[in-house]
Queue: 4 jobs
Job 1
Amino acid sequence: MAESSIPEVNMRSPTELQAIDRATRKLLTMHHTHHPKAAVEGLYLPRCKGGRGLIELESLYKRTTCEVARFIERKQGRLISILRERDALKKSHSIQGDATRSRNALHLDDDCDTKDVKTADQVQREARWKEKPLHGQHPKIMDKPSIDSDVSYNWLKKELLNAETESNILAIQDQCIRTRNYEKHILKLDVEDRCRCCALCAHDHPTSGSPLEHRSWLQLHQVLNPLRT
């Protein structure tokens, strides 16, 4: 096979992939599948971590590029040598160059595999989620040793609710729905943010020590329990 017969691969830039991801999120919002104020990080985290389980193109590109670069580095042969030489001549978006940038951003070594890249990317995404002053309160609460995250996210893993209901519940968890707590701490309005039923702070009733946890919340869980069977 002649060198000229090897087709050129048109690599998309990260900016183009980010634009496609934004367009996807816009469609999800238009169809009420993703709340416009909910955390973007939650969309791409697995459901067992409290996310929606979508695949982000930019992250997929990073994993694929790192795996292809690893394959090229390890394999030998005339065609592989030609591919390696052609890739080295590219001024931008070469396989090796993009893979190196992706590994450096994720603090990984050159011998990492797809699983390592996926895990590191997920860890960084969770960290960004927790760093947010408003949206990050829920994942921080879920890290408490007294909370079983596997059981708490069981409803997400079973996917029994429709997409709109699911997005609304997650938006409430992200505390981006306009509640009294949101008005006081985010909008800085002069309002009382205590619960009208128990007179305690109401933004995290399901995971707090509120008296409602043993009454209203227990009744709510009993109603939802048949959905989990």
Job 2
Amino acid sequence: MTGTRPEVLARWPRVRADLRTDATGTLSVNDVDHACSAASVARLRAGVLARCVAVATTVHRPVRLEITDSLGTQQLAVSPDGTVRGAHDDGTVDAVAEPPVEASPCRRCDVPQQVTTTTCASCGVLEPLRVELVPVAVLDADTLVHPDDELIERLRATLVDAAPPPVVPVTPVPAVVGSGASGPASFESLLDVGLDPEPVAPRPTRARRAAPAVRARSLHLTFSTQASVTAPDGVSLGRDPAPADGRHPVRVASPGMQVSKTHAFIDVDDHGRLFVTDCRSTNGTRVLSEPPVRLDPGSRHEIAPGTTLELGDVRCTVTLAD
């Protein structure tokens, strides 16, 4: 009887961590190093595991973690659900999981958090277990380094646009009754007998965003990472934003690369109301209200003038220009 074939980790992505006894260290994702620090070695280790969970969640599979501390070097397989198992040089993974990872204090409010938590429910901070000194981007299609063929195909599949609308067939013009003709009637014969050609159904078109009725107000945007910007009442924010539906593109400086290429839209309607839309960004958009609100991707959310938004590692305060 043949035994079950062991699970084998993909070569990419690969995470390495070097943890020192003073609770500092280096975390490397695909050979890109990030300096780390925490209040204790235990919190540092939890932060490393949380980063691995974020990477595993992005690629939808376990990732390899090579972690070195005062006890030596250990190879682990970290899954999107936070499960940790032993791994080996050949990529095989132990069938039995390690004990569950204990919750670790939030970096802002110290409320215990699981390694799978992306936003602290108590204080609202993103990545509550982050230990990198400079925020790092969760892997997306723009930051892939050595993806395998399977992952490339999956990414391509998510970028394929919807199929074009079907072509509506044209109904043949019927023969004129009593004309004796064996084929379709000519246009002239239809005129002679007082008939009109059967109308052809129009080809369906995709709905487009209606342009605002009036563009009377401008936006004043104050950023935590760059100079303020005054722009028309429809803006597209991101590292390299697209001018979607006529919106004015505003580039946002993101030291930790946590702002997506096109991260969010901000619009003003003809009544002076402000709206923000998260453009399915990698790290999300939060309205820093009481309590903070994380926007659903693609949904339009009304905000008051003076509201501060959190776009990854950048804060942006939105007001109406005089």
Job 3
Amino acid sequence: MKSISYILIFFSLELKKVFCLLNKAEYFSIRTEIINEMGLIEINNFISPNRVLCIVKCLDRKECNQLYFNRETQKCILFSGFSTKNNLVTKQSALLAKVFTQNSSSECIKETEYWSIKMNSCLPCPVTFKRYSLNSFSCYHMSQNDMKFFEAKSYCEEKSAFLPRPKTSNERELIRYLSNNTKTWVDSFIDSLGEVYKWGDGTNVTGFKNGQPGNEGDNSSRLNQNVLIISDLCFFDIEYWKTFKTICQIF
């Protein structure tokens, strides 16, 4: 039985508490400690009647790495990224960070296997795909050739896979490693101006570079840049006809 412990470390001026939620079948990257300062990217902001509901909302979104809750205003803010240096914590508020642990018995031993949340077991990666420690729940394949966006998308789909959907910091770090820190296509595009970029599973893309998406071009009243790449852990919009690194993902 897959067993993942989600430990929420509560930083406050008044006290520290540890919340453990066991056996929650959700697709999260595994992190045993807060490794680096990535900054906080807001992904949701709402009123929550209590801190527990705020925590649950964060657990339900795999891209949520950290949350803020103010018990006086009942404001809950969900963030992607990690930070331990901030000015959010007051006597009336708290900043909580996800820290993940995993029982060794639930890990797939071979790098040609990945843990399927849906099947609750190890499954073999397709031929030419490989699992990496930064994301035990997916297998990845790297093309030898750079491609245009829709060529890359079709290339992955022919392998019953898709372009990467790096929602968590670990996944973004992995794509940077696999691409040797070069620009890489990700699984998102739009068809019209003003349309919101979404992943292939329908969830919104977060984690854009400042000023992005920018739709840069000679005429900003038309759609010039309609697809996304990842570079230096952030997303940019760009023209579909350019050629970049192609990585395929499956889970």
Job 4
Amino acid sequence: MQHSASLGDSDSRRLSLRNVSLATSGRYRCEVSAEAPSFQTVKDSFHLQIYVLPSRGPVINGVLDYRRLGVRKGDELRLNCSCHQSAPPTSLSWFINDHKVHDKHVLEYPPREEGELMTSVLGLRIKMEERHMAEHALRVKCVASLDPVFWRSQEESFPIIQDFPLPDDGSSGVAVAPSTTGKCILSRPSSRDFQAPSQLPLPCILMKIRLSRNVLHEAVRRSERQ
């Protein structure tokens, strides 16, 4: 990368720069002086910003468990978003179900220097509440921007696991099965929206294991209260 700019076709009225680099960024001033006898001078300045755009959009890290096991009310969502090698560093923002996440739920890291370029990282730490459970899946999006020249995003979708009251007989009271659309969701065993395959796909098996643990924990709590 060049570290100095040439004036190119510049003249007394126009500034033209070639071979610009990050070092070219800065404040430039234009000054005009009148001839005698007044010699009045007028000047103005502006800031020139040179951008190096990221080669790709932001990346969300820490999604594997949420993809496989889903999220439920009370879970803490712990994710990081990074956008690599730009100048200046990109600005990152989190969105859940198209709503921007409040600053109190984000964890800001200082930009990481990589030569002349910077990598931005922003964490997300938020406890799942009832308001997050309104849809069939939790949509989490990270947006990276270098206003006004760059805007990219990545979105992840995690299945939502709804809790059902535990019946008095100690059974789970719910069924785990793939729906006709191929998604793995929970419902009452009598639901007509579910198939009854002899072998569940892996996501449904993992969900069933998690549900069984919940049933066991609830049974223990009930026995302790008796």
